[in-house]
Amino acid sequence: MRIRAVEMDHTVPTVGWLLEEYPRPGSLHADRLLPLLEAHGVEKRLLGQFKLGTPIELPTGELLQPSDFMDPPTSRRIGLLSDTRDCSRAAAHCEGVDVLVHECTNACTNFDRQRGRGPDTIRRLAVEHGHSTPQMAAQFASEIGAKRLVLTHFSSRYLGSGSAYADGVMNEIRNLAKQHYGGPVTCARDFLRVEMQVNGEVHEHHPPRQPYEEWPGNIFKTASEAEGGEAVEAAAEVAEAAA
């Protein structure tokens, strides 16, 4: 695996990371190749080097090229970009990544709009502190052709309890990103596991929900209070003050 560090634009020196596998040979179409080798008495031991890119020469002088009998090589690539307000320096390195993990510290949610704060205000505050919004992350993902976007590094003002309220806020953030990016968008949580197979398939393994009382950062006294709404607003106000 190759790991590259790329300078980010933040309030202090920081870097993003590109994780890239060395190319893995594609699948061999043995059903087409083996009959040719057998017909010309070519030993199968040559297949090892053939898979690595060495042509096989038949007794007739004909060269069998690996690209004609194998799928294209594969290489999983992941971009990890946190603490940044501008990651344009990483664009060339992260082009076409399978998964882009991008910070999303601030977002203009319904909570903000009710208090007279619009998207421009939230973006300005995020940039002043060296961070990004879901729209900024999504626009970058779209520009580089990322296949999947995972948002992370949320401000503490966004509750991570796994409650209905917290899920609603994360859905708002996800939808803001989807306005600027057409691929799958995931809002990360603690202990979320994103598994990418060799063939490019991605599977997400989400942690189980925690009851309100078991969430370490919980300031809801009971679930019923949270459902009543007053505790939800109080929680958001406290989280905002702490952000």
Describe the fold and architecture:
The longest helix has 15 residues, at 164-178. With 243 residues, the protein is of the alpha/beta class. The strands form 3 sheets. It has a 6-stranded mixed sheet with strand order 1-2-5-6-7-8, covered by helices on one side. Strands 3-4 form a two-stranded antiparallel ribbon. It has a two-stranded antiparallel ribbon with strand order 9-10. It contains 9 helices and 10 strands.
List the helices and strands and how they pair.
Layout: E1 2-7, E2 15-20, H1 30-39, H2 47-51, E3 56-57, E4 63-64, E5 77-81, H3 91-94, E6 99-103, H4 110-113, H5 119-128, H6 134-144, E7 149-152, H7 164-178, E8 185-187, E9 193-196, E10 202-205, H8 223-228, H9 230-242
Parallel strand pairs: 5-6, 6-7, 7-8
Antiparallel strand pairs: 1-2, 2-5, 3-4, 9-10
Helix pairs in contact: 6-7
